[in-house]
Every structure is written in C-alpha cells, then in structure tokens.
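ok trying again, last paste got cut off:
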Amino acid sequence: MTDQTMKIIGITGGVGAGKSTVLNYMEKHLSACVIQADQVGHQVMEPGGRCYAQVISLFGKNIVKNDNTIDRKAVSDVVFCNEQMRCRLNEIIHPAVKAFILERIEEEQKNGRGLFVVEAALLLEDHYDTICHKIWYIHTDQEIRIQRLMESRGYSRQKAESIIASQASEAYFRSHADYVVTNNGLLDETYRQIDEGIKKL
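nice, full thing came through this time. structure:
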C-alpha cells in the first residue's frame, strides 16, 4: 500500500455511537467513498448476490419469501439462538463482504478517489485493520448511547444496556485505534475532530 495515494480509514465503535453522522460528513464534505459492511452483507444475500444460494442451502428453502428474497428476520431468529448456525453464516458472509470491499477499493483507486472509508461493527475482529491506513474509533458516553438507542430504535433501557454490554469494551477499541473522535452530540465539535484527523493522515 506504500505506493498508493488513496487513503483508507476504518471506522468502528459501539452501537449508538453515531457512526452514521461521521460517515455522512465524510461522504458529503470530504468526497469519501463510504462503504458499510452491514449494507454489503445485505447485498450479497440478495437474489443474484454471491452468497444467495449458499445461505439458502444452509437454512433451507423456507427462508425464501414470495418475491425470492431471503427473509433476513427468519435468518436472524435462527442464528440468535443457534451459535453454530451463526458461525456458519458468518463463514459465508464475512469473506464475501471483504472481497466486495477490496474490489471497490481497487475500483475507486483506479478512478483517482482520494479517500475511502470502511465502517464495520466487527472491523477489528474481522482484521480490516490490515487493509486500512488508519483505524478511527467513534466514542460516545454510554448514557448518551443508551438515550439514542431508546429514542431511535424504541429499545428499553435494559435492552440498550445489554446490547452495549455485549460489545467490545471501551479499552479494547481505544487500544486498537489510531485516532478517537468523541461524538457526544455537538456536531461542530465532531466535524472539527474529523477534519483534524484527516489532516493527520
């Protein structure tokens, strides 16, 4: 990666941290190509997608809806209570998502793009750090995250707290990040930190 001009930033952080606020700013104001691994995960399961047949083969034809799309809720209901199926699904989806992202990186680089941003919940666990120049951690105080989840997703406090508790710790994120953006709700301050981080690239 030494000879390329395009910079690749990996964005990570817990649920409710407001990563989409950061991504939107980078896309609109910094001309970044933004890819979210979750969205790619949905794409590769669509009819004609690279994981469509494999997922049906794993879960059976009863997960196919009338319009031939995969019923993602039915899939998530199974993997929620079956660890083995969750692991097998991840073995199908994660490599396909990464391959898709690597293809896009190559494409954008050829097109002369200056900045490429990858956002993934398991950015570190799936070793995206090996393809990124810098890892940014989006930090938000826990109470603010809980309030955001209650407001935006209608979660109870207990559900919000248990989801946050199930994710990687603050210390884990910070120890693997090259740069931290604090996103506690003051947008101008968040944007200032993004611009500052870009200058350091």
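cool. The chain is about 55% helix and 10% strand. The CA atoms of residues 75 and 81 lie 11 Å apart.
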